[in-house]
Design goal:
The chain is mostly beta strands and 128 residues long. The chain has one domain: Sandwich (Jelly Rolls). Helix content is 10%, strand content 44%. The protein contains three helices and nine strands. The strands form two sheets. A six-stranded antiparallel beta sheet has the order 1-2-3-9-4-7, with no helix packed on it. Strands 6-5-8 form a three-stranded antiparallel beta sheet, with no helix packed on it. Strand 1 and strand 2 form a beta hairpin. It is globular and about 40 Å long. The termini are far apart.
Length: 128
């Protein structure tokens, strides 16, 4: 993707972080945070975030919209779910994710920090 791609362009945000190679732009909207998360090609939970977060699996829920690219998530039970743009996303805690392909994956996410699971009623992972 080109640097002029609006999904990847610099933007005004309340906060900007780089966490394990993931670019995170955050803006508050009332009680919810709206985030643009840019996962680079080659991103992999085990290599990029496991040590940073200090857990074997990501224990956050992710609710939003996959605007570009693809991220697959694998749960502790081995189940793999593919999220390929354009697609709505609801990922339960207890997963590890990785980017598929050679373009960044852009996720527009809505969260309540540590209260996302409870406030949005995200259920525990089960096979469909």
């Amino acid at each position: 993707m080109s640097a002029t791609d609006p999904l990847l362009a610099p933007m005004k945000a309340d906060e900007h972080h780089d966490v394990g190679g993931v670019q995170v732009d955050i803006s508050k909207a009332g009680n919810v945070r709206v985030k643009r998360m840019i996962y680079p090609p080659g991103f992999n939970w085990d290599a990029n975030l496991k040590t940073v977060m200090g857990t074997d699996l990501c224990m956050h829920a992710h609710v939003g919209f996959m605007a570009q690219g693809q991220i697959n998530v694998q749960f502790a039970d081995g189940c793999v779910v593919e999220y390929k743009a354009p697609q709505f996303v609801s990922v339960e805690p207890g997963h590890r994710g990785y980017v598929v392909g050679d373009q960044p994956a852009v996720l527009i996410e809505f969260d309540f920090e540590g209260e996302t699971v409870d406030r949005l009623g995200v259920p525990a992972h089960r096979h469909s």
